[in-house]
Amino acid sequence: MPQEYIEIRGAWRGGAHFGSNFRFVRRCVVLRHFPRRDAFGIKQFKEGKMKYVCLIYQDEALLQKMSKDEMGKLSAEYKAFGEAIQKSGQLILGQGLQPTHSATTVRVRNGKTLTTDGPFAETKEQLGSLFLIEARDLNDAIQVASRIPSARFGSIEVRPVWA
Fold first, then answer.
1. Per-residue confidence at 47, pLDDT binned at 50, 70, 90?
2. Under a CB-based contact definition with an 8 Å cutoff, are residues 17 and 26 in contact?
3. Is residue 3 scored above 70 in pLDDT?
4. Is the pLDDT of residue 120 over 50?
């Protein structure tokens, strides 16, 4: 059965082929849908490169307290970073997420689907965005992650993607 990829509230999620019985949980909006083209539904990857996801965690309250000028500077830094890694050929996908108050957590227990508004756990830093990149190895991926603007006031989790 072919896989399809769905963009849900700005985050890419892979899953099995969804038949007509599939229903989305409330407040879950499908923005785009397209059939499988490769392992990620995005593009073919270069030989000898590994794929890593850079999960960007930051304090949403800190971002909300930023002045308009500070937020403008941060946006400009992200734009420059994104253009640089795209030009280098390392960028596969970069996507920001809506704030955690727009999230819905889904669990299935004893065959029953349970939903909770908001994130699964309260934490100081929240997952705010992600980059899927190609890198030679973990050290190369860490070098890319260290250039992500939010690394100065948040944290970047670098994780290899299953090949």
1. low
2. no
3. no
4. yes
Number of H helices, E strands in the chain: 3, 9
- Measured over the CA atoms of residue 58, residue 59, residue 62 and residue 64, the dihedral's sign is positive
CA distances from 111 to 26, 107, 108, 114, 154 (A): 18, 10, 6, 10, 37
The pLDDT value recorded for residue 83 is 95
> For residues 66 and 152, what is the distance between their CA atoms, to the nearest angstrom?
14
- pLDDT exceeds cutoff 70 at 31: no
Instruction: Identify the architecture of domain 45-160 in CATH.
Output: 2-Layer Sandwich (3.30)
Taken in order 96, 102, 103, 108, the sign of the CA dihedral is negative
Residue ranges of the domains in the chain? 45-160
